[in-house]
Amino acid sequence: MKVVVVESPAKAKTINKYLGRDYEVIASFGHIRDLPAKDGSVDPEQDFHMVWELADRGASRVSEIAKAVKGADKLILATDPDREGEAISWHVLEALNARKVLKGIPVERVTFNAITKASVEAAMRKPREIDQALVDAYLARRALDYLVGFNLSPVLWRKLPGARSAGRVQSVALRLVVEREMEIESFKPREYWSIVATLTTTDGATFEARLVGADGKRIQRLDVGTGDEAAAFKRDLELATFKVASVEAKPAKRHPQPPFTTSTLQQEASRKLGMAPAQTMRVAQRLYEGVDVGGETVGIITYMRTDGVDMAPEAIQDTRKVIGKEFGDRYVPDVPRKYSVKAKNAQEAHEAVRPTDMSRLPKMVARHLEPEQAKLYDLIWTRTMASQMESAELERTTVDVTASVGPRRIDLRATGQVVKFDGFLALYQEGKDDEEDEESKRLPPMKAGDPLTRERITSTQHFTEPPPRYSEASLVKRMEELGIGRPSTYAAVLQTLRDREYVKIEKKRLQPEDKGRLVTGFLESFFRRYVEYDFTADLEGQLDRVSNAEIDWRAVLRDFWKDFSAAIGETKELRVTDVLEALNGLLGPHIFPDKGDGSNPRTCTVCGTGQLSLKLGKFGAFIGCSNYPECKYTRQLSASGVDGDGDGSSAEGGQPGVRVLGNDPVSGMPVTIRDGRFGPFVQLGEASTEKDAAKPKRSSLPKGLSPSSVDLDKALALLSLPREVARHPETGEPILANLGRFGPYVQHGKTYANLGKDDDVLEVGANRAIDLIVAKEQGGGRGRPAADPGRPLGKDETSGRDLVVKAGKYGPYVTDGEVNATLPKTMNAEALTLDEAIALVNAKRASGGGKPVKRGSARKAPARAAASDKKPAAKKAPAKKPAAKKAPSKKTGAG
Q: In the chain, how many domains are there?
């Protein structure tokens, strides 16, 4: 028996079918070991010795693998073909050696780029040893992330309350988002005018020509800067005579893009399918590991974490065959296309992301896949096909027009593009992030010297626009251009920024939260080198050299740690006032915007003499007056004038962590958003100091809803919960949507069903709510098998209740909905009669037992009150020893 170790159960199941009875395929469930979240896990004093520990699940996986290996003929490590996959194999081998279970059993490492029978069998014929250079690159990266996260995050916690973590790549990605936002805020629009003439040829066809020159000088887009200049050009053109000066038609070709890499797949899935990078990778993982396609479980795409754009020769030939069959020989190039990698730090020697079988058309497999799987497969198949198709043939035409008015000559130009042969465009066109494709226009036939008739002259005012915010796709593209991070890390980095509430997504664009601005400002002020793009890219380059066995991984860590530890040490003497002053200066334009009247934007609007400044409180940073406590003016950063009123009037006399959204139109009471110990919440009115006074109404914020995006209308909607969504189709009773301790849910009577992550408690509709409730009533909730409805026995005429016999965890029992009575071993559930059941239930009721747990109990149903409403339990906790210094979580340095 040969034991094969892979990462996931789905992958194990698929591969086991290919290899047969002589193999046992076991899943490690990813990494089995990790660095403990405590001081000393990476010890610079011991030349960066790393201490690993088995996670709970890891220990059980190692035990299962060790059990299988005993007596086995061979151990085959078949994890993914990249650094992480190599590291997982190394961890498994190290753990087994520590248990001394191998004892002469040969160990082999195999990799395959696709989970198909042919690929797996071919890999088994070409085993190798673990690539120590790839493992060293993993160790260096893991140690760097630990050292940065574990040492830098505590500095943030001490000097910048409210900040959650800093990571080596995460912090640089955040800086990109923040700097783009600062560009947008400091942008000053510039006025310009466009002049367009609509002209008619001698054949009566019309076209448009734009102003490009006058009096022998070229006029560019921004050169006509005022309405007066535009009016002068328009006046002259309305008096001018027009003729064609020249016509130039040039052939052009447009070539297809290469097949997908990890980053380009994430970008296109974001643009075309609206999928976040993390979602794209989850779906791609399923397609890679294996799906049931017509009774056969097979991986239908190649490995999805890759920098490579090349394809195996046999895959190229298969693609060309399908192109010829589906589109005709005209669409097949004479020579197969070859692509090269342009990314700065590309080092993975894998194929591009492509289908494992090009003849498996999207329409053939769509019915076997989940909707998002089908969409992503279609995108991958289409891009792969297009990459090997013939180029599109175009004709680009330029017509220069002369307008004469007296001695003055004005030049105009019209451009057009005609597709002579669509080529790959018949199937696919790559999306764009921030610009629209120019509309292809066909110009009418003309020749030099032809007179033209003026139809109308149009002058249009424009203003230059700031650079757009990053989308997830364009941020991934920018990180790749700068050489920051790796394909396998992009999705995790973006998800971490959102989880930490450093950024939010508005209209599919990334916008920094104030918390994210503060973290970036702090790092730029005191750790600037470590958020510089060139420094981070250079470090990635060094890691690539480690993976190529060119440099020692510990040498990289020594060079990094020498300066980094010194920078950390310097912050020990750093005072909070120093931090605040640095942030006041760096973030001044955002938190103290110019009022436009020449006054000092930092002057307190309440007392008139104090200076506004950043302050740090229990729940993070806020703006306060220097005359505190005499002047108690405060406001949140988001009310600075960029996102709020700008005069602070909405929060006068308030306290840190409180922002007034407005007044409830019904009660007239103020509606505020506040920071609580369990997270942000909205509140109606103020708490009374009277002992028996009712608490103000509150509602926590749903997960993923940023406090800065909550306005008065949204707050009132949250405070109005629960809301009736629909009526139950059978009972006619209301189905309510509400927020509870465990998140949003819908409720019908004593039946509760949690809403999904894509559901909005304020927007969920009747059909969705009914589906969730009915599914819960029939199946006991998402992911659980349907509850046993039991065998009806009849009605107890005395109590009026229906009796049912059911199969229970501890054996069959009978219930009338109020009392459960277990059947004695002498009774057969199938033969139980109504009279016997009534007797059992009555006996159980008489003894005072058998009452079922109420379905509406706190353990099963979501709490109806917001977390903010809860009071701490009165029960006194037992005395404890002084707690040791709290270590950061394992997620501290993610990315």
A: 8
Q: Give residue-wise pLDDT tens across range 603-634.
A: 888 888 888 888 876 656 788 888 888 888 87
Q: Is 424 helix (H, G, I), strand (E, B) or coil?
A: helix
Lowest mean pLDDT among 570-574, 715-719, 768-772: 570-574
- What type of residue sits at position 39? D
* Structural domain containing residue 615: 594-636
Lowest mean pLDDT among 445-449, 522-526, 871-875: 871-875
> What DSSP designation does 722 have?
S
pLDDT at residue 214 tops 90: yes
Catalytic residue from among 18, 303, 377, 633 = 303
Q: Do 14 and 118 fall within a single domain?
A: yes
In this predicted structure, what is the pLDDT of residue 881?
Answer: 45
pLDDT tens digits along 703-724:
777 776 788 888 999 999 999 9
**Are 407 and 445 in a shared domain?**
yes
> What gap in Å lies between CA 348 and CA 81, rounded to an integer?
9
Grouping H, G, I as helix, E, B as strand and the rest as coil, residue 487 is coil
633 in active site: no
170 and 277 inside one domain: no
Q: What is the CATH number for 407?
A: 2.70.20.10
Tell me, yes or no, whether 273 and 375 share the same domain.
Answer: yes
The reply to whether 678 and 729 lie within a common domain is no
Phi, psi of 243 (to 5 degrees): -150, 160
Q: For 166-277, list the strands marked E by DSSP.
A: 191-200, 206-214, 217-218, 241-254
Distances (CA, A) of 476 to 155, 270, 433, 829: 28, 10, 11, 62
Residue 245 has pLDDT above 60, yes or no: yes
